[in-house]
Amino acid sequence: SFEAIGTNSHELPMVAACLANTDAELKTAQYDVLAKWQEVYAGELLIMLPDTFGMTQFLRDAPPWAANWTGMRMDSKEPFAAGEEIIAWYQKRGQDPKKKRAMFSDGLEVDLMIDLHKKFHGRIRESFGWGTMATNDFRSSHPRGLNTLDPISLVCKVTAANGRAAVK
Fold first, then answer.
1. Is 147 or 82 the better-scoring residue by pLDDT?
2. Cβ distance 72 to 102 under 8 Å?
3. Helices 110-120 and 79-92: angle between axes, nearest 10 degrees
4. What are residue 5's phi and psi, to 5 degrees?
């Protein structure tokens, strides 16, 4: 059998932020989602998504226990910069990045995944969330050779919760 590997989505911290009633609750909303997530899940499902409101601020203010999670999925930041940032973050917190997972995602193509593997292999446990370009890439499939079948990235986001507008 295989262990499931994954993370939550951007929608959870977006909704938690909408439901916050004070500035203090707003600041901790994204971490409160992780605290509840780890009550339910363990192992390879403890992969945080740090970039809903910006990866750098997330890591700067993350509670100490977040460094014990299995890894992170980078989705909204340039992947090479994100990989370097999380390696430095783990090292600063006394964690061995070689034991942590870096799950790269966000419109990956094969060449980029190979380049990311070359850069990070042996430094962190790299993996890839290959979505749009694996399942929705029909660029060269038009029967008349037309280049009209560009992939569509279908991403759904929360627009409001509890009568408050959401941001991502």
1. 82
2. yes
3. 30
4. -120, 130
